[in-house]
Amino acid sequence: xxxxxxxxxxxxxxxxxxxxxxxxxxxxxxxxxxxxxxxxxxxxxxxxxxxxxxxxxxxxxxxxxxxxxxxxxxxxxxxxxxxxxxxxxxxxxxxxxxxxxxxxxxxxxxxxxxxxxxxxxxxxxxxxxxxxxxxxxxxxxxxxxxxxxxxxxxxxxxxxxxxxxxxxxxxxxxxxxxxxxxxxxxxxxxxxxxxxxxxxxxxxxxxxxxxxxxxxxxxxxxxxxxxxxxxxxxxxxxxxxxxxxxxxxxxxxxxxxxxxxxxxxxxxxxxxxxxxxxxxxxxxxxxxxxxxxxxxxxxxxxxxxxxxxxxxxxxxxxxxxxxxxxxxxxxxxxxxxxxxxxxxxxxxxxxxxx
Length: 354
Fold this sequence. Notes:
CATH superfamily of the domain at 13-108: MurE/MurF, N-terminal domain
CATH architecture of the domain at 13-108: 3-Layer(aba) Sandwich
CATH class of the domain at 13-108: Alpha Beta
Number of strands: 39
Enzyme class: transferase
Radius of gyration: 25 Å
Active site: 258
Function: Catalyzes the N-acylation of UDP-3-O-acylglucosamine using 3-hydroxyacyl-ACP as the acyl donor. Is involved in the biosynthesis of lipid A, a phosphorylated glycolipid that anchors the lipopolysaccharide to the outer membrane of the cell.
CATH topology of the domain at 13-108: Udp-n-acetylmuramoylalanyl-d-glutamate--2,6- Diaminopimelate Ligase, Chain: A, domain 1
GO molecular function, one term: UDP-3-O-[(3R)-3-hydroxyacyl]-glucosamine N-acyltransferase activity
Domain UDP-3-O-[3-hydroxymyristoyl] glucosamine N-acyltransferase non-repeat region: 33-101
């Protein structure tokens, strides 16, 4: 890949310092002063790059690797060429994530769209809004009446912050996002185009066969250190609140219905849809493209495979998959049985042809 000017290399970190900061052991102490400036995949890493390996399946990529260091665990370290220093880590994926954050701090959240700081002349901030010092508001952003925004927060170009919204400190609200009827904690990242706090999908049967809208008068509560992906939508509650727990990470193009409550430190991948009034526990991981029925409970620590359909409650700690979702061991057994029956049918069909 050609030089990436969007994210230029770091000025440099000594390998010894990098090892200390990511909790790794540098096996070759003679290279503590070697400097790394960027990250790269193994197959095209060059001097100055640091990369990582999780599996021996990638060993062929080492033939073209000229990295200044490779992060890996003890089981893989023996296959690393002797000319490439090893940063030994018990959790190499985590260690690499920490290294990337050190080398590319500006890539951790959406960047500024302009070079201006403070309140841009082209922004509209209602006179009744209350902004703490060091808030940035880019051109064409709108801050509604009575809104409150904490110090260190940046509201990017074209974002809309509705009346009386509360946003904490050190948040980033990216371009084109809209936040209504919401209370946002500290250190929250909301990516471009996200829609938070619009009314949910609630209707009652009308007298002439149509539908009558049910008012949605709840809020959205987003706790500290949450990250919400681009074009994700989170509806406000009908009468209660929609809540996203501390540290939860939500991918792009996710739909979260009204009154949903999601626990702490969950991971929800792209194109998941969670219907209204569902309860998601702490530490739940939901794979991409999954649909979750409304008015059910998903317990703490549950893992749901991609493209699943969750129709009923899931007990804590379970691994579910399939449509309808069921325990993973049952799902995989059924898949194996279906494959076996298909193979047997094919054999019989082949025999008749003969």
